[in-house]
Here is the input.
Amino acid sequence: MLNALNLYRLTIVRGIQQFATYRTNIFSNVASALFMLGARFALWMALFATGNAGDTTLTETMTYFVVMDILMVWTTSNFGDRIGGDIRSGDISIALTRPRTYHFQLLAGLHSGAVISTLTHSLPVFIAAILFIGILPPVSAGAFVVFLLSAVLGGVIYILVDLVISYSAFWLMDYWYTSWYRRTLFTLFGGTMLPIWFYPEWLRVISSVLPFQFALFVPLEVYLGRIYGSDLLYTIGMQIFWIGVLFVIERLVWRRVQHKMVVQGG
Here is the structure.
């Protein structure tokens, strides 16, 4: 266990060192993050000026996106590019024979990038939003604790969905489409581009029976106090349910992946 944690720490440190080698990476990340915050604020301010924003406020909406940026850094993955690249280069055979599991390597790489993105993206956006825009704090300490739990469960859901989609690269021998499908599913049904409370009723109904909104949208509703009381238990229960379903699917597909590699001699 200690060896695994030490390797995990070293992987993250090495990733940070590689990124920090070029200072322009840091400056460009900070600049682009602040530019996107300003552009998003201007667009939503124009929308709210029309009076067609429903029962929400500009501050609540901006809080939604600022907190989502922080969550996405730590909970959203893009394993398709890594898996597809390993398959194309042939490095997958080496990765699978290393002491640590392939999934451990994927997660270590994800969180290495998360530390970098937190420092160069999420933190500057968060500070700028507090100083110049204003964002809402959690509605209560209890709600914040439930939010953290829900955010962790949501991250697991996102990763499981991403893994299942990314495994398709083993059969199709290409991977450019995996990030597109993942991004589209979470954009359309998960509220990553537009909060689901702005959706038409028919699209809200469809989103409610799919796992995607439970990754990011639902934890943010907990943060904002839109989900409270007994509904919190239902929310956590549904997240655990979807984790169970997706975990079974992921294990079944991974077993087929291993069988395919053994048959092909990979």
Summary: The chain has twelve helices and no strands.
